[in-house]
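INTERNAL AUDIT FORM
Audit reference: QA-55
Scope: verify that the stored structure record matches its stored sequence.
Auditor: D.O.
Record contents follow.
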Amino acid sequence: MSSSRRDFLVTAALGSLALELDVYPSEAQKKSEAGSTQATGAGKRPIIVCAKNGLAYLDRAYEHLNQGGDTLDSAILVVTGPEDDPNDDSVGLGGLPNEEGVVELDACCMQGPTRRAGSVGGVRNIKNVSKVSKAVMEHTGHVMLVGEGAERFAVAMGFPRENLLTERSRKVWMLWKEYHSSGDWWGPGLADPKWQAPESKDFERKPQSELLQDHVERLVARAEELGIEPEFRLAAARRVIFPPTGTIHCSVLNEKGEMSGITTTSGLAFKLPGRCGDSPVIGAGCYTDQDVGSAGATGSGEENIKVAGAHTIVENMRHGMSPQEAGMDALKRIVRNYNGDMTRLRYLDMTYYILRKDGVYAGVSLWEGYSEGNPHKIAVHDGTKRSEECVHLLKGFSQEFPPFPKIPEELKKDSVYLK
């Protein structure tokens, strides 16, 4: 292609600037501040909160916690579920690879009772990096190991090397490789003062909605040629247009008030080799203070690093903010970093999972969700397993800019992976 995927997306966004945007506070936030319990809860222990892709694994972790199990081990029982699942392409086995087709994983953990931490970044060939981060904490005098050294340490600790690239994730990477420019992640980035929306002659010939729909149809057709199963072709096209940043965080609190937190990820899809986001960064992707609470994040890792999101939230709670107030403050710092520029903020998203030592929790997000019908959610187990919609700061959807087009029924009928 003559223009990069990023250029395509940005110019498509220009065609949507006439859409009315509501700046924070959103209606959901106003309702919550007036007393709504959406994605917030009061004082029940033991309790586990995590990203929604951990929902299916909460029962086994809660049972372990109820039987007196360590809080960090309980959290690991949640996050290793997605790590082991080849169909979850955001974490561990089957994770979407970097731009060279290699899966690189990051994780960090904090154990409240012992006030220890461990972290690994850019790890290849090791599936359960959540457990490796714990091993760094328990068996070294360090906090963080990265790259080849982290992999060698994992092998020395008994973790097997294995190929993490599944056939499905390899084919999605091949699809992305065919439809992107090699300069996609080389900048300038959204935060660069030199960043500007490029011009496109395509919009002189076709409306934005038609252009994007044509693009999706070409991707779906090529996905079929690559042998991607029918029910996943539309989802593969979405991953090419909107590279996901999937991650899982989990915070755990037992009856005695002991806390732990953990975050693990395969990182931004198709990233530059060696890129680490917020997940392995203590204080950004995860932070636990035994005296106060625990917090973690999923979303735009670079933005979360810049506001030290998890640490900021815990410190906010230390100074008297509720979990929801603490999370909203961190989100507003991200918005402030872009001076409220909706053109840029539409390309970012963030969800925080927050648990205070007394059992009060909150789930807050920058935008309502990924798209219509896909709101951001937090998963909770305090004796009852459930998922709840997050309280959001900005009205609208992060991946709505440009909006994913209306898909012809013949393309949509077989798909079961519309997110």
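Auditor finding: record pair retrieved intact. The first strand starts at residue 40 and ends at 41.
Action required: none
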